[in-house]
Amino acid sequence: MNEAYTHVRQSANKIIIIRIILLLHDRSSIVFSHYESPEHVRSNPNRKLLSRGEQHSRTCRMAGAAKGTVIKLLVDLGKACAEYHDEHVRNVFAKRVQCDEIWSFCYAKDKNASDDQKARGAGSVWTWTALDADSKLMISYLCGGRDASWGMLFMEDLASRVTTRIQITTDGHRAYAEAVEGAFGMDVDYAMLIKLYGTPSAPDTRYSPGEVIGTETKVISGRPDARYVSTSYVERQNLTMRMSMRRFTRLTNAFSKKLENLEAAVALHFMYYNFCRVHQTLRVTPAMEEGIANHVWTIEELVSILR
Fold it and tell me: Is the pLDDT of residue 171 over 50?
């Protein structure tokens, strides 16, 4: 009897902690409108603070759990989410896929990390993403470097998940050209959308990109439809990532201290994005639009994949 009670209580605590993590890491109000939060969260007079993506310490105080417990749960659930994604996001019927990569860093920026620390995952981390432009499903993602070898791993993973000939659009990053050819061969319609930047007029432009003064389309292989050569959706997804995951927010001290934690947070984010979060335009989740799921997942269902 005591063992059964302990198991139920532990499961309930996991759900509460994950609810709070997601509440703190999603800046939109969609979580509040679709899911009932714990009583002490809903009655919090500083409810608006929940939408700003606070750190683990705040999660620990709200859940009444130790920091190590919260981080371990995040890592364990992140691994479970990655395994579920790898197993179930397969045989995707996609027509147009947009790819991009987003920068973050782990432990320290490149200039402040030693070679030994970089060997353990410190420094710049690039998250490669492949988004179905129609269903908005995140088909594939990968955390790693930005060179050709990582590009090849990413494109090979994408190729293993789609069943049809697709049109791919990427930015002008050189690693994509060789990676797409190596993963898809000639069975792909691929174009690069290269942005042309002007010289910044403002003196303080350290963290600001130059003004985009034009774009150039370069067909790499196949016959891509010029009407759909775009990276707008996947770039909007980059904004969603920065707004939903505190560790992706620029110019803060909320960066990841371990690569394992970053990978877990990304896996949890995309699992929630694909299966739990109702897309504002589609009115369903991306997984439902793609036919992978038949209903909106609850937080309890998401936690249940953690065996």
Answer: yes
